[in-house]
């Protein structure tokens, strides 16, 4: 499950960021979001039985969810130019999993920063051992992944930022294709693997409190199975503005994923077109409460594949409170 709407939350957070790392000592924030989520996918583990033909879209599932986020930071150094941090990453990076991040960043020059971090698996995600089972209950298994990340923000004070991550993914009990009648090469369906994610972003001021941010993303994932290995290329555009206590972020993304070899189950090489749009709003000092903020989010994303089995869609509407300290 890819949390497209989190990009909006991360973007609106950046409208409040400054080049300096902040005052010395401990700081941070905690957020709790409540919302409605609707998800349609053949990898939705809330729907164990697929009664439709195999090469068809998954069933839609919806419900109310709670989503906590938070980060703790400690700033130090002779000029308050170093910082260590830990907590939940606000952005969908590398694996698409929401991960706990532990990192160190420091100022480079007047208003640039470099950061190094690790994203270990804290809570494992779930998927199907064999996602191609039909007319009977599928069996769940855990997935995990770790990432190493490097960020260079506002390179040479030019508004350009770079993000690079190396990650791995492991499916605990991989059985993809075991249920398919007849001889197929199940080795090509193995989902374990390693990847490299990169993103370059350019921040362009469009006013005293407004910014336009185009970005380019490239993701290479090398799976143990060649039919699961892919190159993904994405472009995005985000508009950020802050008007008094009100902060807004509107963003959109398009990506194309091209897989290495033909999927032996469906007899063709997978190609995905992915699109997502997000809106995020924050009202600072909500109810005149110092350090409190009201957040509202809306996001929608789709994956349109040439193999119907891999089509996905996701909708999220949420509201919550955040506290900064």
TrEMBL record:
It holds the Pfam family DUF2860. Keywords: Signal. Residues 1-19 form the signal peptide. The keyword Signal applies. It comes from the Bacteria. This is DUF2860 domain-containing protein. It comes from Photobacterium atrarenae. The lineage of its organism: Bacteria, Pseudomonadati, Pseudomonadota, Gammaproteobacteria, Vibrionales.
């Amino acid at each position: 499950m890819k949390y497209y709407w989190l990009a909006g939350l991360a973007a609106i957070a950046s409208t409040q960021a400054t080049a300096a790392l902040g005052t010395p000592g401990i700081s941070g924030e905690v957020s709790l979001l409540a919302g409605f989520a609707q998800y349609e996918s053949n990898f939705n583990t809330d729907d164990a039985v697929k009664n439709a033909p195999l090469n068809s879209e998954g069933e839609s599932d919806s419900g109310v969810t709670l989503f906590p986020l938070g980060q703790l930071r400690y700033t130090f150094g002779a000029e308050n130019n170093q910082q260590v941090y830990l907590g939940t990453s606000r952005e969908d990076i590398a694996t698409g999993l929401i991960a706990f991040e532990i990192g160190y960043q420091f100022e480079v020059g007047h208003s640039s920063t470099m950061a190094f971090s690790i994203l270990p698996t804290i809570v494992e995600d779930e998927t199907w051992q064999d996602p191609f089972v039909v007319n009977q209950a599928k069996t769940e298994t855990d997935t995990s992944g770790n990432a190493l990340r490097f960020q260079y923000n506002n390179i040479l004070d030019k508004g350009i930022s770079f993000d690079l991550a190396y990650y791995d993914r492991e499916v605990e009990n991989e059985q993809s294709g075991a249920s398919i009648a007849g001889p197929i090469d199940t080795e090509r369906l193995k989902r374990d693997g390693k990847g490299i994610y990169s993103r370059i972003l350019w921040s362009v001021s469009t006013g005293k409190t407004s910014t336009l941010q185009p970005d380019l993303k490239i993701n290479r994932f090398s799976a143990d199975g060649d039919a699961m290995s892919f190159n993904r290329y994405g472009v995005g555009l985000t508009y950020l503005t802050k008007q008094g206590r009100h902060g807004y972020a509107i963003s959109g993304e398009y990506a194309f994923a091209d897989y290495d070899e033909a999927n032996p189950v469906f007899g063709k090489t997978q190609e995905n077109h992915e699109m997502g749009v997000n809106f995020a709003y924050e009202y600072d000092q909500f109810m005149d409460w110092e350090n409190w903020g009201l957040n509202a989010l809306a996001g929608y994303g789709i994956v349109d594949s040439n193999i119907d089995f891999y089509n996905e869609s996701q909708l999220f509407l949420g509201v919550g409170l955040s506290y900064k300290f």
